[in-house]
Amino acid sequence: MKKLILSSLIILIGITFIGRLSYLQLFRFSSADQIYDDPAIKVVYDYPERGHIYDRNGKLLVANQPAYDVMVIPREVEPLDTLEFCDLLGIDKERFDSQLKKARVYSPRLPSVMVPQLSKRDYARLQEKMRKYKGFYIEKRSLRDYNTPAAANVLGYISEVNEWDLKQNPYYEQGELTGRTGIEKQYEEILRGRKGVKVIQKDRFNRDIGPYKNGTLDTLPKPGTELHLTLDKVLQEYGELLMNGKRGGIVAIEPESGEILAMISGPTYDPALLVGRERSRNYTRLHNDTLSKPTWDRSILAQPSPGSPFKTLNALVALQEGIITPQTTFMCYNGFYVGNKKRGCHCGGGMRTMNSGIYRSCNAYFAGTFRKFYDNYVTTDEGQDIWEKHMRSFGLGNYLGYDLPTGAPGRVPGKEYYDRVYGDNRWSSSYIISNSIGQGEVAATPIQLANMTAAIANRGWYYTPHVLKKMGGEEIADPRYTERKYTTIDPVHFEPVIRGMADVYNKGTAKWIKIPGIDIAGKTGTVENFTKIDGVRTQLTDHSVFVAFAPVDKPKIALAVYIENGYYGARYAGHIASLMIEKYLKGEITRTDLERRMLEKTLEHEYAKPYSGEEFEINEYVW
Amino acid sequence: MSGSNAVRRIDWLSVLIYLSLVLIGWVNIYSSTLEPDSSILDMGHRYGKQLIFIGVSLALIIVVMALEASFYERFASLFYVIVLVLLVGLFLFGKTIAGATSWYSLGFFNLQPSELAKTATALALAKYLSDIQTDIKRRKDQFRALLIILLPALLIIPQPDPGSALVFFALVFVLFREGLPLWYLGLALLAVLLFITTLIFGTIWVGIGLALLIALVFALKRPSVKIPLLPVVGLFLVSVVFSLSVDFVFDNVFEQRHRDRFTLWLRLEKDPDKLEEIRKTIGYNTYQSEKAIESGGFWGKGFLEGTRTKGDFVPEQDTDYIFTTVGEEWGFLGTASVTLLFTFLLLRLVHLAERQKNAFSRMYGYGVISILLIHFFINIGMVIGLLPTIGIPLPLLSYGGSSLLGFTLLLFIFLKLDANRLNEWA
């Protein structure tokens, strides 16, 4: 009996121990975080330099500059002279305490940033005294150094990883930098390279006692790769100057390659503002400017109605479907009738063929073409499907697929859309007649307009626009950007349309802005637009839109210019487009008066109108 | 003839387990104390010294086995007296290591008499109890037996080495085996239970709980069963008074470090931040040893691959915390094996003790079991975080010459007695 008691006690203890050991070693054990969780192991990183960025001609856009972060490992902090240290760091004690507390909450044993991005001078002052402060050390980082004040929207910026990034991607550690927008985000892993890792065995006094596992887990850093962009630094910078005081976007594409030559959003900002210690203050300032939205890339995000440039596509669709020939005529009565309601036209009136319809931008001609197109089909649905298919083949109505992390789809309405708005079978061409002149439901981003223009310039095909030209010196071979996309329009139909576009310059809506020695094909657009002021739908001054390519026969550049509230198409957008073309093709500007006017003239007074609180006039003829 | 018979009668299973544990111990001491650029036989290092102690232990085994079995009974009292003298002598000539005056410096070796005292006390207790004139039912003899146990413990406490002193109390198991009424044990258990519950819930709730428990027993008992009311009430009152005194002792007699250990063990601190703080400061040892064992997982990190062991994060890792090395480098396989080896050895010894015809051998056997069991229980219990920190070594595995020799002597005297059980020498 007593023998049993003792034996049972022994067995009970044995079982208890095995149970506890199972809990510790089988249940609580997780092999994943062993190295990083182990106080005996320290992981140190060797950061490679981030890849430089060049323009299409090998001009340097972005390089690197050193910066110094003061890091802390809270666990290792020993009592210190806080005031002296704060003085060295250039922060006050409150900030010191709150940063340290934040770091401790994040992790007592992992490094956190105490003070980011010290200047070189502060660093020199601090470096020699650093040994006194246990648990703190200086981590050298590489910040961006910009060689251009332009292209902030394309280049994007890098910033410190946040909690979310850390959770999403185990590669990153606190204090590391990652691309946030633009090229920096799109090609983050290529620009970044791969940091080297050294795993070091430590003792409990936190002394290094040699490489862990004889260095078998260590890796060498893989340097970042340099990128050549398709942008032309000169053209990009010039375009941004032209956008002075104007809101809108310019996108210029080389039609034969789909390479984006310039991608301008106005207003913009100097990319250098988002580097260094002033970064977060500047960022907040830019981000809080909700009126002009300098961080909002209008060249790829703004989705206005395309306006008259869209007429060229309607002409192409009608030709392709055999609805009209270039000789078909429509009468313009200084407008046209929808039912018994008259819609206006500024072309001067009279008989219009396709050629004069385009160069005089006759609304009646295109409304007539549009109606005739729909009348050709048994149901509107069928017509809408065919129309939609052709439009989409120009890259409209969906994300284009260029290599930047943001974008907007624009809109090419389909029958489903109108069924939703008007009800099944309860709409006809009269309901959607605005689409004939690029108003109404259709919408396109400036880059979509530029791409559409490039497709016309190429007589029926395009390459998906892109900003990356070379990666590490090698031309890109990504099939998304090196395979032609064909439109659904036969090449023969382009010639009459292009003739019309060329006549826009020769004798049409843009005849005042010819460039000596260069044949340009283009199309003006004047886009009605509305806003809500105190809940009342109010019309604002028209957007000025222009698309063009040149030279007409062997196009080197195709572009779209969109200027918010710039009034009629030739007024701002047309002038800017012609200056961009001249700059790119000739390298210099002969029409210096025009250039000066565009550089100086701002539209701030237009943008202030809706906020003035008073009645205001739109589409004023003041120059 | 008798020689070969004796060899054949040795319980080789126990010897095998003994050798396994000593070997496992050395491998882990080697891992815990290895430094770069040193050879296995480097006497400047602990693993080198331990190798010598193992050699000496093997020699000691031969001597123990060679002597007449009757020698141990005959000279039990003398051993005991010598050990007591040695313990007293420490106050005059003792060498202080890490704050405790527990060693005699013999130049090449520091002797820790408290390790020998365990064997001597077990022998003396067995001898006293097996005397024909002793009757464990008599108060006077109970008292004397208790005195034999308490005397060395009282000499060891002021060294100070309360952990080692605690071990001697395990010898009361021998008394229970030999007829000490079990309700003594019941009372002791009740006291421990009251102590713990009072610390956690406070006297008021303990009192209410006890009253409810008694009421429940009375309510549920069959009417035919009569429970005398007076002793029950008496017990209740004594319990309440005891419970009241717990708070007093805890607050006024215990030192802060003792209080902290209980605070940590029983999770008395309710603020999780403060508890975590205590865990990492006062409970640093246990925190680190738990983490190290945990990090071993099922397979362990492998021999000499324990990062926490190499980093020396767990204090005393070659002595009291040797089990963490087993845990980190050999994983659950290692820790479970060591636990099972100890369990089997103890069960085997119970079996051996019970088959003794001679009372002295049986009682001594129980003494051996008691001492090994309490070491096993407290050491591993502490290292894996089930018990508060009490610094005593893990028998046969922990580094230390006195400890290894002491446990070897303790065990093999019993194996000698067992090998000799058929001889009619008594």
From TrEMBL, chain A:
<dbReference type="Pfam" id="PF03717">
    <property type="entry name" value="PBP_dimer"/>
</dbReference>
<dbReference type="InterPro" id="IPR017790">
    <property type="entry name" value="Penicillin-binding_protein_2"/>
</dbReference>
<dbReference type="InterPro" id="IPR050515">
    <property type="entry name" value="Beta-lactam/transpept"/>
</dbReference>
<dbReference type="GO" id="GO:0008658">
    <property type="term" value="F:penicillin binding"/>
</dbReference>
<dbReference type="GO" id="GO:0005886">
    <property type="term" value="C:plasma membrane"/>
</dbReference>
<keyword id="KW-0472">Membrane</keyword>
<keyword id="KW-1133">Transmembrane helix</keyword>
<dbReference type="GO" id="GO:0008360">
    <property type="term" value="P:regulation of cell shape"/>
</dbReference>
<dbReference type="InterPro" id="IPR005311">
    <property type="entry name" value="PBP_dimer"/>
</dbReference>
<dbReference type="InterPro" id="IPR012338">
    <property type="entry name" value="Beta-lactam/transpept-like"/>
</dbReference>
<dbReference type="GO" id="GO:0009002">
    <property type="term" value="F:serine-type D-Ala-D-Ala carboxypeptidase activity"/>
</dbReference>
<dbReference type="GO" id="GO:0071972">
    <property type="term" value="F:peptidoglycan L,D-transpeptidase activity"/>
</dbReference>
<dbReference type="GO" id="GO:0009252">
    <property type="term" value="P:peptidoglycan biosynthetic process"/>
</dbReference>
<keyword id="KW-0121">Carboxypeptidase</keyword>
<keyword id="KW-0378">Hydrolase</keyword>
<keyword id="KW-0133">Cell shape</keyword>
<feature type="domain" description="Penicillin-binding protein dimerisation">
    <location>
        <begin position="47"/>
        <end position="208"/>
    </location>
</feature>
<dbReference type="InterPro" id="IPR001460">
    <property type="entry name" value="PCN-bd_Tpept"/>
</dbReference>
<keyword id="KW-0573">Peptidoglycan synthesis</keyword>
<dbReference type="GO" id="GO:0006508">
    <property type="term" value="P:proteolysis"/>
</dbReference>
<keyword id="KW-0997">Cell inner membrane</keyword>
<feature type="domain" description="Penicillin-binding protein transpeptidase">
    <location>
        <begin position="248"/>
        <end position="577"/>
    </location>
</feature>
TrEMBL record, chain B:
<dbReference type="GO" id="GO:0015648">
    <property type="term" value="F:lipid-linked peptidoglycan transporter activity"/>
</dbReference>
<keyword id="KW-1133">Transmembrane helix</keyword>
<keyword id="KW-0812">Transmembrane</keyword>
<dbReference type="GO" id="GO:0008360">
    <property type="term" value="P:regulation of cell shape"/>
</dbReference>
<feature type="transmembrane region" description="Helical">
    <location>
        <begin position="51"/>
        <end position="72"/>
    </location>
</feature>
<protein>
    <recommendedName>
        <fullName>Cell wall polymerase</fullName>
    </recommendedName>
</protein>
<dbReference type="InterPro" id="IPR001182">
    <property type="entry name" value="FtsW/RodA"/>
</dbReference>
<dbReference type="GO" id="GO:0051301">
    <property type="term" value="P:cell division"/>
</dbReference>
<dbReference type="GO" id="GO:0005886">
    <property type="term" value="C:plasma membrane"/>
</dbReference>
<dbReference type="GO" id="GO:0032153">
    <property type="term" value="C:cell division site"/>
</dbReference>
<feature type="transmembrane region" description="Helical">
    <location>
        <begin position="396"/>
        <end position="415"/>
    </location>
</feature>
<feature type="transmembrane region" description="Helical">
    <location>
        <begin position="330"/>
        <end position="351"/>
    </location>
</feature>
<dbReference type="InterPro" id="IPR018365">
    <property type="entry name" value="Cell_cycle_FtsW-rel_CS"/>
</dbReference>
<keyword id="KW-0133">Cell shape</keyword>
<feature type="transmembrane region" description="Helical">
    <location>
        <begin position="78"/>
        <end position="98"/>
    </location>
</feature>
<keyword id="KW-0472">Membrane</keyword>
<feature type="transmembrane region" description="Helical">
    <location>
        <begin position="146"/>
        <end position="176"/>
    </location>
</feature>
<dbReference type="Pfam" id="PF01098">
    <property type="entry name" value="FTSW_RODA_SPOVE"/>
</dbReference>
<feature type="transmembrane region" description="Helical">
    <location>
        <begin position="227"/>
        <end position="250"/>
    </location>
</feature>
<feature type="transmembrane region" description="Helical">
    <location>
        <begin position="12"/>
        <end position="30"/>
    </location>
</feature>
<feature type="transmembrane region" description="Helical">
    <location>
        <begin position="182"/>
        <end position="215"/>
    </location>
</feature>
<feature type="transmembrane region" description="Helical">
    <location>
        <begin position="363"/>
        <end position="390"/>
    </location>
</feature>
